[in-house]
Amino acid sequence: MNKKDFVCGIDGGGTKTTVLCSDLQGQEIARRTIGAFNLNSIGEDAFRNILCEIVLFLQETGNCRALCIGAAGVNNTGMNEIVSEVFSAAGIPFKLTGDQNIAHTGALGGKEGIALIAGTGSVCFGKSADGRTAMAGGWGHLLGDEGSGYALGRDALRAAARLFDGYGEPTILKSLIEAEYGLDTPEKIVTYVYSNDKSAVAAISRIVDEAASENDPVAVRIIMDNAKQLVSQVFAVSKRLGLKKCDVALLGGLLSNPTSLRAQFVRLLHEANPMLKCTEPLHSAAEGAVIEALSLI
After folding, report:
1. Burial 15-44 (b: 16+ CB within 10 A, else e)
2. Which CATH number belongs to the domain containing residue 203 in this structure?
3. Bridge-partner residues for 21, per DSSP?
4. 23 partner at 20 to 30 Å CA-CA among 34, 93, 153, 294?
5. Do 69 and 194 sit in the same domain of this protein?
6. 149-184: per-residue pLDDT in tens?
């Protein structure tokens, strides 16, 4: 019996990976969630195992006509080589692209516009109707990630550290951080920041939101400064692509939820240019990868 033709989109995340299969009309036929799609964090052997698990799933599903994989770190030569080796050996045509690309395609249904993502990290990515792309941000937490959970958490911890040093501005952030995380000494703050990954710092963004809702001036300023930087990124992308009027899809936990950062960003963007309209995403990143896969056949 002939196997059914289908396409597959993969949203490869740092903690989990979504594998979504659809028929050639774009209707979902199968889905699976597996482990992290990150060569650097899980190592080559585990990464190969993830790919082999995907291959087996696709072979069980039918005849995969095209596969689109969206993930971080796609410029990693090692990742490209391993992905190419595994899927070429399985006879599965594939495309490997950045996770911001499939997020954009999903959020805007493959149309032109801008996707602004603010979660643990942040990035602004845009596409024009003629296929040109531009990106602002995405430099990682050491160089950028403005408007991200990491940036908000870092700024809150910095404010607390300055109070410990005796020259910081009064803020309830310090007491909230002490109560929630037990970081009541400089030594504990240093250990927390430098013994954990960036998600631990990003988790403190919730405290910034809480303090801002109570009109703490330092927290409000942190929110405003980061919101302004996100607006600047949107303007930079829209200018490079000549998008004077377009949708701006809001993605990531800090923008898809009713946070103070989202409220200030939406307000500032509308005041600066009401033709750049904030919208909710139409589809998920995995669905965006499916759309990309369908374009390959």
Report:
1. eebbbbbbeeeeeeebebebebbbbeebee
2. 3.30.420.40
3. 8, 30
4. 34
5. no
6. 999 999 999 999 999 999 999 999 999 999 999 999
Residue 2: is its pLDDT beyond 70? no
Structural domain that includes position 41: 5-109+284-294
Whether the per-residue pLDDT at 45 is higher than 60: the answer is yes
Contacts of 210 (CB under 8 A, 6+ apart): 176, 219
Least confident of 27-36, 69-78, 119-128, 267-276: 69-78
Q: Are residues 100 and 118 in the same domain?
A: no
Q: Give the pTM.
A: 0.87
List the structure tokens of 212. 């801002």
CA–CA gap between residue 141 and residue 121 (Å, rounded): 7
**Which residues on adjacent β-strands are paired with residue 37?**
none
How many residues does this entry show for the chain? Answer: 297
Structure tokens that stand for 62 in this block = 């039918």
| Ramachandran region, residue 126 (left: φ > 0; alpha: ψ -120 to 50; beta: rest) | beta
